[in-house]
Amino acid sequence: MEMFSSPEFWLAVGQIIMIDILLGGDNAVVIALACRKLPPEQRRLGILWGTVGAIALRVVLIFFALTLLKLPFLKLVGGLLLLWIGVKLMLPEGDDEHAGIQASAKLWAAVRTVIVADFVMSLDNVIAIAGAAEGAGGGHQMPLVIFGLLVSVPIIVWGSQLVIKLMDRFPVVIVLGAMLLGWIAGTMMVGDQALAAWVPAGAKPGAVAPLLYYGCGVLGALTVLVLGKALAARAAKA
């Protein structure tokens, strides 16, 4: 229970919830599209069980991601992917992204659609959440992931539309969220096993020197901001 008194734990929980909200907009759309033909009395059940199944699947995927991130070079690859996801978050979205989501009039068919679609679209969430959990350290990554995802379930189910409206009204929310992904990417990449011989160590075993750790986080956040703004401006001109 000592992990609940750790500032790093609560910081990572906050990051996981923020990631799930920002990258969970697709989940809200998928759930709405898959359940739209259900009878009204079954729609709530479809949303609930679809979300529960998607979260359970994500916990399994993140377990494998946390294991794989211990291998050399994979944090570098995951960090680069996160940087791109952060940049992509700042770009205008296409209108036909969810055209392939089929609605069903049967409860379990709709739930299956939600889970399968979430599996296909979960790579960004899985890498980002695994990176945030890695940053907490202390050997509590899986409890942290499960706790963070459980806390985010009601936010996804009941708060997604509110958050989407906030993003529409205050675009700075999207920018800050994209920079958060850049921060996680920077701090994750500097901790890759392949760089251990060249990176100054911190006080804890396996930790990076604090100045370098936070500096790489800031560099990652600024990289996403600059690239995202530049590509968004280019897309607007085109």
From TrEMBL:
Pfam family name, one: TerC
Keyword Membrane: yes
Membrane topology category: Multi-pass membrane protein
Location(s) in or outside the cell: Membrane
Keyword Kinase (UniProt): no
Keywords, sorted A to Z: Membrane, Transmembrane, Transmembrane helix
Transmembrane segments: 12-35, 47-67, 144-163, 170-191, 211-232
NCBIfam families linked: R_switched_YjbE
Similarity comment: family membership: Belongs to the TerC family.
Protein name: TerC family protein
Organism: Roseateles rivi
